[in-house]
């Protein structure tokens, strides 16, 4: 795959408004603002933030509010949710929120939808939604939400703002469930291969083979998310990657923390079992110098052929994170 062929596939960013060790939420939002402004200038296609709750290192819980902040500090890049966890919300409320965003920033807002709560069970209950019912009702909630963006509303109920705006919907998933639903509804589909690698191939195959054309899409549009960390040397990139390893390790141990500073020896911290499990879960993490990451991404793109690649980079230092994205952009565009 040549540089020009990379450039034929849109490249986007996933951000969690990461709270770093030693810093606070205000710093996280400032870093996200700086990163999206860089992304817009550099040529990235879209910038998504994800809904999570009660996680010490993630500040993107009020996702629609954060999208408004980021869109307000940019002019052209698409901004959206990767995603809003629909079981946590009334579809009408989400329609009004994203209808408001679309009205403020026309033709720039995306609404990616997931069916997980984005948190633990106790916090999910505190969100005042019946978790079992709403997860099971996810397909109906998606259809209900889409109707609020139609010209006629939903059974006499209208979203203002929202009605007639046709805000684009995307289904997100880490299994084959959302792939099949996206195919059935004729919606674009984004797979979370950056933390759930095992079902990527199956999900993309099911989505493409079962896709039913809709008013939204004539052909399937598949997106995949991966992790990338690019530095001047492989050794430096591997050092930077330890922040993400520590963050994920702490989360799996049930004690999430702000994003830690990198460490020189992870083997002093994780067990062999934890190391193997985490490395497997983060299989689609491309870490190294520019040449190595380019070669690894070429293989990933050749095998999976996503219509768009979304990249997450869990790097402690915001300037080094931006440098990593710049190195990726240099070979992509």
TrEMBL record:
GO cellular component: cytosol
Residue ranges of domain Luciferase-like in the record: 19-248
GO MF term list: oxidoreductase activity, acting on paired donors, with incorporation or reduction of molecular oxygen
InterPro entries listed in its UniProt record: Bact_Lucif_Oxidored, CmoO-like, Luciferase-like_dom, Luciferase-like_sf
Pfam families reported for this sequence: Bac_luciferase (PF00296)
Entry coiled-coil feature ranges: none
Family, similarity comment: To bacterial alkanal monooxygenase alpha and beta chains.
Annotated protein name in UniProt: LLM class flavin-dependent oxidoreductase
The species this protein was found in: Listeria weihenstephanensis
